[in-house]
Write a structure and sequence with these properties.
The chain contains twelve helices and eleven strands. It is α/β, with parallel strands linked by helices. The strands form three sheets. A six-stranded mixed sheet has the order 2-1-3-10-4-11. Helix 3 crosses helix 10. The chain is globular.
C-alpha cells in the first residue's frame, strides 16, 4: 500500500521556511538569464482531470515567481506516456517541463520496459502535492460503501464493471487488485483519462472506479456518482458520509499518488533550483493552500533531492505491486 502522511501545521511551516529562507548559496546558484521567454508545462493527460487541475492551479503563481508565464500544454495518450516521452526528448534548457506523476513516471516505466524513456530520463525538480484517492460508484448501485460493493459483486459474477483512465494506470491496477483479492468477476473498461469515465459511471454503464479525490470531488458534490471509501486517515468534511478504507478493514486498498514537476535529464541544476523555489513560493501562498485543501490535495514542496528519494522509494513499491498483479487480456 502506498500511503502519504497528512499535512500538519509543521509541514506548512516548512513550506514557508523553504520559500522565504533559502540559503544565499541557493540564490547564487540560480541562472540569472533564465527564463527569458514563456516556459511550457506539458500535462500528459486530458484537460479536466486531477493532474490537469493541479497544473492550472500552480501555473499562475509559479509563472509569477519565475517572471515568465508557465503555459499549460495537454499532450494526453497511452496513460501519460506520450507527453512524458516528448518531454524526455526535449532540449534540456528548462523551457519544456513535465507535470510528472506516480502513474506516468513510476508505474509506466515499471510496466513497459520498451518505453522510449526511463525514470532516469526525467530529472526531479519539485514535488508539488500528494493526491489521496476515493472509490466511487454508479449512484444506482445499492452499496453504500466499498465493503458492501465487494459483497454484492461476489454474489453476481460478471454483473459489474470497473472503469479506469486507461490500461495499467493506477485506477486500473486498483480495480484489478480488489477483484483478485476478493475473487470478483468484473470487467475492466478503460477510458482516455478518468474524466470521460464519469459520464458512464453516472448512467450505470460501468459501476465503480478508484480515482484521485481532486478529480472525483465535483462529480460527488453534484450527485452524479457516490463515494464508497476514501484513502485518508479520517472522514472528510466535504463528504462526511463516505467512510474511510480503514473503517471498512480495507486500508490495503489505499493507493495514493503524487504530482510534481520534472525536467529532461541534463537540465542545468540551477534552472531546476529556480523552478523548485518558484513552486515553493507558490505553495506558501494561503490562497493556493486553501484551494488544495478544498480539493483534498496535500501540498508538499520538496526540491530535487528529496523528490528524487520519493520517486525511488515508489519505484520499488510499485514494482512489487505490479509483480503481484494478475495479467489481463484487455
Amino acid at each position: 500500500m502506498i500511503r502519504r502522511l497528512p499535512l500538519h501545521g509543521s509541514a506548512i511551516a516548512g513550506l514557508l521556511f523553504l520559500a522565504c529562507a533559502l540559503t544565499p548559496a541557493a540564490h547564487a546558484a540560480e541562472s540569472p538569464d533564465w527564463p527569458s521567454r514563456p516556459v511550457t508545462l506539458v500535462v500528459p493527460f486530458p484537460p479536466g482531470g486531477g493532474n490537469d487541475a493541479v497544473a492550472r492551479q500552480i501555473a499562475g503563481p509559479v509563472g509569477q515567481a519565475l517572471g515568465q508565464p508557465l503555459v499549460i500544454e495537454n499532450r494526453p495518450g497511452a496513460g501519460g506516456t506520450i507527453g512524458s516521452a516528448a518531454v524526455a526528448r526535449a532540449r534540456p534548457d528548462g523551457y519544456t517541463l513535465l507535470l510528472c506523476s506516480t502513474s506516468s513516471l513510476v508505474m509506466a516505466t515499471a510496466l513497459y520496459p520498451g518505453l522510449p524513456y526511463r525514470v532516469e530520463d526525467l530529472a526531479p525538480v519539485v514535488h508539488i502535492a500528494d493526491t489521496p484517492t476515493i472509490w466511487v460508484a454508479d449512484p444506482a448501485v445499492s452499496a453504500n460503501n466499498l465493503q458492501e460493493f465487494i459483497a454484492a459483486a461476489k454474489q453476481a459474477p460478471g454483473k459489474y464493471g470497473y472503469a479506469s483512465g486507461g490500461k495499467n494506470t493506477m485506477p486500473h491496477l486498483a480495480g484489478q487488485t480488489v477483484s483478485a483479492r476478493n475473487g470478483l468477476d468484473m470487467l475492466h473498461v478503460p477510458y482516455r483519462g478518468s474524466t470521460p469515465a464519469y459520464a458512464d459511471l453516472a448512467t450505470g454503464r460501468v459501476n465503480v472506479m478508484m480515482d484521485s479525490i481532486i478529480s472525483a470531488l465535483p462529480f460527488i458534490e453534484s450527485g452524479r456518482v457516490k463515494g464508497l471509501a476514501v484513502s485518508t486517515d479520517q472522514r472528510l468534511p466535504q463528504m462526511p458520509s463516505v467512510p474511510t478504507l480503514a473503517e471498512q478493514g480495507l486500508d490495503d486498498l489505499g493507493f495514493e499518488g503524487w504530482v510534481g514537476i520534472c525536467a529532461p535529464r541534463d537540465t542545468p541544476p540551477e534552472i531546476s533550483a529556480k523552478v523548485a523555489r518558484s513552486a515553493q513560493l507558490a505553495l506558501a501562498q494561503l490562497a493556493l493552500r486553501e484551494t488544495f485543501a478544498r480539493q483534498i490535495a496535500e501540498p508538499v514542496g520538496d526540491g530535487p533531492a528529496a523528490f528524487a528519494q520519493t520517486i525511488q522509494r515508489d519505484v520499488i513499491a510499485w514494482r512489487q505491486i505490479i509483480a503481484a498483479s494478475p495479467n489481463e487480456p484487455d
